[in-house]
């Protein structure tokens, strides 16, 4: 399995050469499947972000940080823009320009445009204007959801640090969550909601059970059935 944050720095290897670089991974938070890879393509003055379907991917090469696709560079370039199927966090207006629809681990509000007519009474924090972008409420940007707060059994106990992606099926079976001084794996089947705009991932697993949960180790192998069994209270 590959962390979503690792995939987000892979280059895209087309049939006739490199076709761009991955900037984000978009997944469905009901089915927990990758729906799109966000690929930045084009030349220096014509960069734009397009979405590539997992069915068009031959497979990743982690050693060389490449994602092979059975497409030509021109075919990748002509794929639909990110705006054609944006994640939930893109319902807010973005700045115009090359980085207009940029997804970032820095948070879903990166690039949002403050609306001076919606300033709060204290004048300290601008509100954000909602655009007319038609977003799927269950399509999520991994880059945005990373660093969301984690609520377990109604208690705020940590943060989402990453997601593990199964490159054989493009499922997203685990969230990596940071609790105190350790990272544990949370099966995404145990996620109740991915909140927006409050940026809270909620599970009804008890905080104590989650804190004692299976630790995450890079390059580790995990048995989803055993992990589901561990979280027996669900």
Structural notes for this entry:
The protein is mainly beta. The protein folds into 2 domains: 2-84, PRC-barrel domain (SH3 type barrels); 143-230, Photosynthetic Reaction Center, subunit H, domain 2 (Photosynthetic Reaction Center, Chain H, domain 2, Alpha-Beta Complex). 11% of the residues lie in helices and 35% in strands. It is globular and about 50 Å long. Residues 93-131 have low confidence and may be disordered.
Overall pLDDT metric = 81
* CATH topology value of the largest domain: Photosynthetic Reaction Center, Chain H, domain 2
Order of helices and strands: EHEEEEEEHEHEEEEEEHH
Number of domains: 2
- Assign an overall shape: globular
Provide the helix percentage.
10-25%
């Amino acid at each position: 399995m590959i962390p979503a944050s690792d995939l987000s720095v892979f280059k895209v290897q087309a049939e006739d050469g490199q076709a761009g670089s991955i900037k984000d991974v978009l997944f469905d938070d009901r089915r927990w499947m990758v729906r799109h890879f966000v690929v930045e393509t084009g030349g220096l003055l014509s960069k734009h972000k397009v979405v590539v379907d997992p069915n068009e991917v031959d497979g990743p090469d982690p050693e060389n940080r490449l994602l092979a696709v059975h497409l030509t560079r021109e075919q990748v370039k002509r794929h639909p823009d990110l705006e054609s199927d944006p994640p939930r966090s893109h319902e807010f207006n973005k700045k115009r320009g090359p980085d207009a629809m940029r997804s970032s681990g820095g948070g879903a509000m990166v690039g949002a445009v403050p609306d001076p007519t919606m300033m709060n009474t204290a004048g300290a924090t601008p509100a954000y204007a909602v655009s007319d972008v038609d977003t799927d409420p269950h399509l999520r940007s991994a880059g945005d959801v990373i660093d969301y707060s984690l609520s377990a059994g109604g208690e705020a106990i940590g943060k989402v640090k990453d997601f593990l992606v199964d490159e054989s099926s493009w499922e997203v079976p685990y969230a990596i969550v940071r609790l105190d001084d350790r990272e544990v794996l949370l099966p995404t089947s145990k996620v109740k909601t991915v909140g927006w705009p409050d940026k809270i991932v909620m599970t009804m697993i008890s905080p104590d059970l989650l804190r004692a949960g299976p630790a995450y180790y890079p390059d580790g192998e995990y048995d989803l059935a055993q992990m589901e069994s561990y979280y027996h209270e669900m």
